Amino acid sequence: xxxxxxxxxxxxxxxxxxxxxxxxxxxxxxRFNKISENKYRIIALNKVLDIEQxxxxxxFSPCTEEEFNSLWYxxxxxxxxxxxxxxxxxxxxxxxxxxxxxAGGIRLLNQDPFETLISFIISQNNNIPRxxxxxxxxxxxxxxxxxxxxxFFPDLSVxxxxxNENYMSLGTGFRAKYLCDCVEKLLNKxxxxxxxxxxxxxxxxxxLLKIKGVGPKVADCVLLxxxxxxxxxxxxxxxxxxxxxxxxxxxxxxxxxxxAFAAKKWGKYxxxxxxxxxxxxxxxxxxxx
Length: 289
Fold this sequence. Notes:
Layout: E1 2-5, E2 10-13, H1 20-24, E3 32-36, E4 39-44, E5 47-54, E6 57-61, H2 65-75, H3 82-90, H4 94-102, H5 113-122, H6 128-142, H7 164-169, H8 176-187, H9 193-196, H10 201-208, H11 216-226, H12 237-247, H13 255-266, H14 270-281
Antiparallel strand pairs: 1-2, 2-6, 3-4, 4-5, 5-6
Helix pairs in contact: 3-4, 4-14, 5-11, 10-11, 12-14, 13-14
């Protein structure tokens, strides 16, 4: 991978294991919009960034050298050798070999933990367009404006006085009470997101489960997508079905058993395996519905 810096943009060439569509459309983030076939706009880390990809060339704009190295390099997990990881998780596994071949450009993002936690609470029993709409309205109501039509995600302190009714007015539905509980527990330091990345995964998960409405799947997503816990294997409807279909002969299997299977089979790389399977499951090739 080669990096070239220009006045207002940064270009990666000769990229490996980087496909912006697969990265953004694999269910790990919500604040993005597709501008054209090969171009996306994301709002993250209090920045608005356009990403355009043509083959193995990826352009980030507007973006300075300092911003790329201090923000986006880590955000897109560019220090991780995905080629090696794909080799490890697919060794002697024809199923995973097909999955990584199908969506080999996925990378796990390193997102802001607070935004990720709030976003995945909102995501419960919800669809992508509604999730994105609620997050957008929340940001416009309580976040700071950007140079785009969208606003940046609000800080925790700003949400201190937001009521259940305020959240309900944004279309959060039953999730409003969960958001209130989450903000309260974070403000009073009953849960400290800053310490979770240093804890063992299961210990950090127990902390997140203290929040009302946060179940194993939401906790696993927060740990995987924002706190560096790459051993997490979030099990939602899609992942449950595809894991059952491909590894349990289609047998209905408890989520706990699926999680235990993933931990044993892929260990510290289970989160990567989950993302490849999730994207693969949504393809027409499998017929998972």
